[in-house]
Design goal:
By secondary structure, the protein is mainly alpha-helical. The chain is 44% helix and 0% strand. It has three helices and no strands. It is flat, with a radius of gyration of 18 Å.
């Protein structure tokens, strides 16, 4: 939710109201994310050791929500950059 809020706040601050999602991503969000990566590159550190230690399984997960028209839950993954 925070990333969606930040995306809308940034686009609103530069006056973008277009609904063409891919055009918004390539024209506005990609350069913005690149500028943030450049600005904070000396502060960003990714510890990949915990990721390498995660044991993944082949068990599928399906979550359902009862009493609603579309019962299959799908998490919203905002597209901030391609």
């Amino acid at each position: 939710m925070l990333s969606l809020w930040q995306e809308y706040a940034y686009l609103d601050s530069i006056g973008v109201t277009d609904n063409g999602q891919m055009e918004i991503v390539t024209k506005y969000l990609n350069p913005y994310v690149d500028s943030l990566k450049h600005k904070y590159s000396d502060r960003i550190e990714v510890n990949v050791i915990p990721f390498n230690n995660i044991k993944l399984t082949g068990i599928d997960l399906l979550a359902l929500q009862n009493g609603v028209p579309f019962a299959v839950l799908v998490p919203a993954f905002p597209q901030l950059t391609n």
